[in-house]
Amino acid sequence: MTAEWTFLDHTFRIGEETLPYVRQGLNEETAQKICEIIRDIAEVDAVAITDRQTILGYAGLGCPFMVRHQPILTRATRNVLATGRLRLVASKADFECPIAGCPCPLQAAVIAPLKVRDQVVGTLKLYRTHRNDIPGMVHRLGAGIAQLLSLQMELAEAERLRELAARARLEALQAQIRPHFLFNTLNTVLMFSRTDPDRARDLLVKLAVFLRRALTVRDEFIRLEDEMEYVQMYLEIEQARFGDNLRFRVRIDPRAFGCLVPVLTIQPLVENAVVHGLAPREGGGRLTVAARVRGGHLHVVVADSGVGIPPELRQEIFRPGVGKGMGLGLSNVNQRLVGLYGEAYGLRVRSRPGRGTLVRLVVPLRRQAVQPAREEPAR
Known about the structure:
The protein is α+β, with helices and mostly antiparallel strands. Helices cover 44% and strands 21% of the residues.
């Protein structure tokens, strides 16, 4: 095998084997695993990974001062952290170690910076035990592995931030359960407690289940039928209050059962339709929630025959902060979808004043094997 193929083989193998650990974030445990992988594949005597202050991982020959948890001692490493430039060390003296008479057997090294978004976050060090013994391939390997790890770290950080953002939006949505919804529901329960105690008891049970699911859900994704069950529960609670002014129908394509959707994405759209579309309209109206599989995507439509959205507000509905309480749900859901899937997966809205509004949600198809659920009848 030529030197070029050896370099490529080592780089690809190291990239493949270290990726699962880099995705977990750079800490002492993952850094140690990465050092061991590099030490086993690369033609070096020792490998170290540091953050900006301490040694996170170390594998191979060394001395008592080159172990995990120890602070960075050598000026050579601190210079790389400060400048962000790779450095070749050709002799033990060039490490500029402050320990007098240090017994370390290592005599040469490649010290490469690890960067995330152009910020130096640590170093990767490949060591040899002989002076001036940094072959070209080891030099290139140190630079290549450092760039590869930096890229993997940056991607992992971006993924982590995306997940945190999606989680923060979900928690914000959970915190936006409208007080008016609770008060109105409780008032409805009190009304039925005088005229229909069984109905009042049923509503209280539904409200308790609804709130428990809304406030305790932690998974990022949920089966479509479970989200629709949550939607159904919300609509039945609201129908008890609105009576014949709220008529709804839930239609699900049987092929959509088992599809996964981001949790709490459909119910806020339904609540938005009830509160801002149907409630202001004299005599209420009809709400339809439909889901179907089309190509490699799941399409969900929430349509109401309510008051519609005035033209001057259509450009504002997805702007963060627009609306009140669960009125924020529309922009929040849109931001979560864009954060999870990209700009092409934002909500699509069509509306005509006095005629109603249609909101379409489209997500890539992901499935979980389940037993088909029963389609809900028209109400």
